[in-house]
Amino acid sequence: MMPVEEIKLTARFKVDLTDVDEAAISKIYRIFEEYQRIVNELIEYAHSYRVTSFIGLHHAKYRELRQKYPTLPSQYIQCACRHAASIYESFIEVKKLGRCERERPVFGRRTIWLGNKLFKLDAENWRASIAVHGGGWVTLRLLHGRYHEQFKNMKLGEARLVLKDDNNLYLHVAFRQAVVLPEINANAKVIAVDVNENAIVYGNNDFVERFETDEGIIRTRYFLKRRRIQSKIRDKGLRSKLLGKYRGREWRRIREIYNRAAKEIINKAKEVGATIIVMEGLSVHKEDKGSRELNGRIHRWSYSRFQRILEYQAKLHRLSVKYVDPRNTSKICPVCGGELDISPNERRLMKCQRCGLEEDRDVIAVKNLVKRYYEECMNAKTLKPFDCRRQIDVGSSLSPRKLPNEKREEGLKPRTLAFS
Asked: Cα separation of 20 and 37, whole Å?
């Protein structure tokens, strides 16, 4: 029986404020003001009593807030409790890592979480109704395009109402769709994906292709730019604004590269008839690797974000995703299982000491991932389950024969090679 999985998609709509009268807009603005006050009051209570759960906040403050805001629909308070608990829980995690100097978080964004009882969506006419004070509703016209047509037959989830600094209003709506995924078995055709700092290599035993990302180079440039801003600009407000600007610009640039890479991999999978995407179950933790520069590069590299983007898009296109044990994928020969050593012909080439195979280390990694997938499928009933999120050492320029764990050469812009 093929597995069925529910995929969540978020659609963003801009609200046509020219279609709304001033009285309706003022009602929406009032909701924003009161919601922000409620969330900050809940955050202050959570900080005072160390409450991190929605249930704890709801139990302690719901009745008090209902009496304080009697005309506000009650689900706004429930959503505010969830919102505040999420903000404070994230704040504690960031505080533990030493990345925040504030004593408590402050909710300054003009964002409202909308439960399914606080808004209605007419997908045929693309209009949304938002609950306001006194049991009333305000109807908003949503600007849409051909992209939004795919959401008409999907299951409606929750939403967020966002008021930008330029006073433009946006509605972010979550939709859900059940998709039937191919069964993961030994008869399926697969494409394996090896994620590197500056390139994404994918393929199987028939072909291997390379997508150049230059992520390490891009992130290093933005890192140096932010460091110059921190050292030269003394005004805290301006410094914070510029840092946020370049941080957002960096992520948008990387995200666009990730989406292009994911699209290319999925199109190739459809072209060759592959139904399974195989990826490494990587997990990189902070540790001293003998070089501050290398350590910084490793932790600026967001490979897991690309894996999530690829997994999301693959399932949306009805492709299954399988994570396999990533240990020694560039250290073991995919043909005979012998130990590999750096070839004297080129730095990125690896040569098998037993059978003499000589190939690029990324090609070897891809073929080993494919081999590991089929081995796990064949031995699924006899092998014990393993933790696929293993720690992997990446980015070292040292020879793999000198260390017990694999040290992969990343960070240098790889040559574009033709693989067969």
From this structure: 25
